Amino acid sequence: MIRIQQEAFDTGAEIAEISKGRTDIGAIVSFTGLVRDFNDGRNITGLVLEHYPGMTERELAKIEAEAHQRWQLQASRIIHRYGNLALGEPIVLVITASPHRQDAFDAANFLMDWLKTKAPFWKSEMTADGRTVWVEERTSDIDAARRWQK
Amino acid sequence: MIRIQQEAFDTGAEIAEISKGRTDIGAIVSFTGLVRDFNDGRNITGLVLEHYPGMTERELAKIEAEAHQRWQLQASRIIHRYGNLALGEPIVLVITASPHRQDAFDAANFLMDWLKTKAPFWKSEMTADGRTVWVEERTSDIDAARRWQK
Amino acid sequence: MKILYFAWLKTKLQMNGETLPWAAERPDTDSLVTWMQERGPAFAEVFSDRDVVRIAVNQEYIIGNTPISEGDEIAFFPPVTGG
Amino acid sequence: MKILYFAWLKTKLQMNGETLPWAAERPDTDSLVTWMQERGPAFAEVFSDRDVVRIAVNQEYIIGNTPISEGDEIAFFPPVTGG
To answer: Does residue C19 belong to any structural domain of this protein?
Structure first.
């Protein structure tokens, strides 16, 4: 399940919903990405996230389908926000549910790595001195995504 | 933070608490292990978890300290239940918070692998035909824990 | 053809996008980029380094030169930085 | 010495634990296990395969033979299966 939305989400509520009324799930892994006050040596006061409506949905659906093909997953959820985000607020949520713990871990890790390098979102940071800075691609994200190439 | 308890826990509430009022956390990973209705070819109707009070706390504290030494963690939480557990109920929770997503992922994965092979808990399963079966050690858990040996 | 710009491309070009007629002189993405580079100073700057401009045609990433036709949605954007 | 049994060791021996006086004939964990094996059929069975019985002395896992003394807490249990 994929959701792209402006409003904040509640990680706990999303996790609860995934396992509600089910007794076949053995493991649930969640990843929550948050707006933090410091990045690459800059003090941050907030974020603006731009995305490419339409393409974002397509890319996230492809990434989710790929994870279900690679691992035994009973359910998954990807939520990504756009718009203005305040410090400490959640940006992205990935949840995976599986009978097996390593499948849940690996799939969540993979989803985040691919999402970071494929989903058309762009972050700009408000810095403490009043500027807006477009965040640059990280080599570490490219390397992380490359791990999953078959 | 470590907790060993009989009562159920709320994954969402625990995650929310870890990041409450903080703006320095970039990534939170959670792992929730649940009682599932099927294991190693047996239909399960519930679990009983026995532990070694005192030693459990010591082992979990050591495992948590090891994770903080290996990765950059801002907070962590390990909750493990004992006693009678019904199908679908949570057994164990691991949460890691870090400025970096891979640290949060790896530390949570490590905590689960070490906990599985070091924390003195023993599961017995109630099977559909009314028997109580002590769960046997899994080779896959030993192999998983071995990955983290330095 | 619908052209879209995102992130700093949008900021530098001061527009979200535009509609361009299909033209025989730019039948594919390579020739469209060359045409953009010769369009004026802001475009020249934005399209100067091909390595930092990603292209999607009809909401799919393209790698290498790709033919374009009337009715296509062509998006130009920098490497993604979500998550 | 306080002796504790967990999981199926407890079930088979039908006790959580017991108090044993320290004795010169079992000054370490190896000799304690040998003494247990010769204690009767249930003990012989439980301690027959040394590989499946883990030992903790004073709540710490031990590897190899370890001296024991009066006041120690010695626990016997199978491989752990929590999580």
So the answer is: yes
User: Which residue range(s) make up the domain with D60?
Assistant: 2-77
Is A96 in contact with A37 (CB distance < 8 Å)?
no
- One-letter amino acid for residue D74 of the chain: I
Indicate the pTM of the whole model: 0.96
Residues B60, B2: contact at Cβ < 8 Å?
yes
Nearest-neighbour CA in chain A from B54: distance (Å): 27
ipTM for this model: 0.95
Q: CA dist B136 to A87, A99, C4, Å?
A: 46, 17, 59
Measured between CA atoms, the residue of chain A closest to residue B97 is: A32
Quick check: do D and C touch, 3+ CB pairs under 8 A?
no
Size of interface A-C (CB pairs under 8 A): 72
User: pLDDT value at position B150?
Assistant: 76
Asked whether the beta carbons of D9 and D46 are under 8 A apart, the reply is yes
Q: Look over chain A and give the mean of its residue pLDDT values, rounded to a whole number.
A: 96
What's the DSSP call for residue C64? S
- pLDDT of D20-54, one tens digit each? 999 999 999 999 999 999 999 999 999 999 889 99
For position D51, what pLDDT does the model report?
87
CB contact under 8 A, A52 and C56: yes
CATH of B2-146, one of 3.90.1170.40, 1.10.10.10, 3.40.50.1000, 3.40.50.790: 3.90.1170.40
What is the structure's pLDDT at A41?
A: 81
Q: Inter-chain contact C75–A52, Cβ cutoff 8 Å?
A: yes
CB contact under 8 A, C83 and A50: no
State whether residue C60 sits within 8 Å of chain A by CB: yes
Residue D16, domain CATH:
3.10.20.30
CB contact under 8 A, A33 and B15: no
Domain membership of residue C83 (yes or no) is no
Q: Closest residue of D to B56, CA-based?
A: D59
Q: What is the tens place of the pLDDT at every residue in B61-94?
A: 999 999 999 999 999 999 999 999 999 999 999 9
Rg of chain D taking only CA atoms, in angstroms: 12
**Would you give the distance in Å from CA A129 to the centre of its chain?**
28
Rounded mean pLDDT, A116-138: 94
